[in-house]
């Protein structure tokens, strides 16, 4: 990766977990972190925020990593995505509350805006998600779009070489003859031969890198399928792509990215179409 990992902090336990994860990934990603705190002036003393930020930057430095930090007044309406662009970030790692999606994110509406507009992939961590130091088992939602392929590339740059589970779910209209299910809605069965052929170059590349690759193709909605596989396989990371122009409401895997980020048992990497 070229550029620092940007970690927005509000000094909550969840944002500290995001920092721990970014610190663990930093050596594979270039070894540089940029910490940023959005100051809630006048309700939050600048000196107190500075002390908290310096403390965390010091912990990162103690691990032999380069780290810079900055405080930005939230009143300036600065966006995390703008900061990521200005510092040339290669990745953003941040926490999010899972109660109602990104509307209740640790950084408020910043998280939703960041996921839509960041110039680089964004990793989110929901409360209760496990955060292994190195992603060994990775579930990738693939629809062959540039964004989903960019998500795969970003995970590889984080040093993942273990078990890859490539998931492709049907995204066509519901089959009216199928029995309704409260968790899943049956969809037209994908052409497995065509999908395998399209995946062949990627599978070969992942295997050359030493990875074990499994392909899961099912005629179910993407969100429950991805979440079920991630839970069953004890995934360390989920990777998805999304259209930047219309955000996660029009995610490339259907309108599922919000559910995946909110309910994921592990961190989720989201790559935008333009990233």
Keywords, please?
alpha/beta; Rossmann fold; 2 domains; ten-stranded mixed beta sheet; 8 helices
Can you characterise this structure?
Helix 1 links the parallel strand 1 and strand 2. The chain is built from eight helices and ten strands. The chain has two domains: 121 residues, HUPs (Rossmann fold); 136 residues, HUPs (Rossmann fold). By secondary structure, the chain is of the alpha/beta class. Helices cover 36% and strands 21% of the residues. The chain has a ten-stranded mixed β-sheet with strand order 3-2-1-4-5-10-9-6-7-8, sandwiched between helices.
CATH architecture annotation of the largest domain:
3-Layer(aba) Sandwich
Please write the string of helix (H) and strand (E) elements. EHEHEHEHEEHEHEHEHE
- Shape descriptor reads elongated
Helix content: 25-40%
Radius of gyration: 19 Å
What is the name of the CATH superfamily of the largest domain?
Answer: HUPs
Query: Which strand-content bin applies to the residues?
Result: 15-25%
Q: What is the class of the largest domain in the CATH system?
A: Alpha Beta
Mean model confidence by pLDDT: 81
Contiguous helical run count: 8
Number of strands: 10
The end-to-end distance, rounded to whole angstroms, is 12 Å
Major sheet: arrangement of strands: 3-2-1-4-5-10-9-6-7-8
Note poorly predicted spans: 98-108, 172-187, 244-254
Number of discrete domains: 2
> What fold name goes in the CATH topology slot of the largest domain?
Rossmann fold
Structural class based on helices, strands and sheet pairing: alpha/beta
What characterizes the major β-sheet? Answer: 10 strands, mixed
């Amino acid at each position: 990766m070229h550029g620092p990992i940007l970690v927005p902090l509000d000094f909550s336990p969840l944002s500290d977990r995001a920092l721990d994860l970014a610190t663990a990934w930093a050596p594979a990603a270039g070894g540089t972190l940029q910490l940023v705190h959005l100051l809630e002036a006048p309700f939050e003393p600048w000196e107190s925020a500075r002390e908290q930020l310096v403390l965390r930057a010091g912990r990162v430095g103690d691990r032999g990593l380069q780290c810079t930090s900055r405080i930005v007044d939230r009143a300036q309406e600065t966006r995390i995505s703008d900061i990521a662009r200005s510092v040339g970030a290669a990745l953003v790692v941040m926490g999010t509350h899972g109660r109602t999606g990104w509307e209740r994110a640790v950084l408020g509406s910043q998280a939703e805006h960041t996921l839509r507009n960041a110039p680089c992939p964004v990793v989110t961590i929901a409360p209760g998600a496990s955060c292994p130091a190195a992603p060994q088992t990775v579930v990738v939602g693939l629809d062959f779009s540039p964004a989903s392929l960019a998500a795969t590339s970003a995970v590889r740059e984080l040093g993942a070489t273990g078990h890859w589970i490539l998931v492709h779910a049907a995204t066509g209209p519901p089959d009216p003859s199928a029995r309704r299910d409260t968790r899943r809605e049956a969809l037209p069965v994908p052409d497995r031969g065509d999908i395998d052929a399209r995946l062949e170059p990627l599978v070969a590349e992942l295997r050359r890198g030493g990875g074990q690759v499994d392909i899961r193709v099912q005629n179910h909605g993407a969100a429950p399928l991805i979440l079920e596989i991630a839970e069953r396989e004890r995934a360390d990371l989920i990777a998805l792509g999304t259209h930047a122009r219309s955000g996660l409401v029009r995610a490339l895997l259907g309108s599922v990215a919000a559910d995946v980020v909110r309910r994921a048992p592990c961190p989720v990497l989201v790559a935008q179409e333009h990233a």
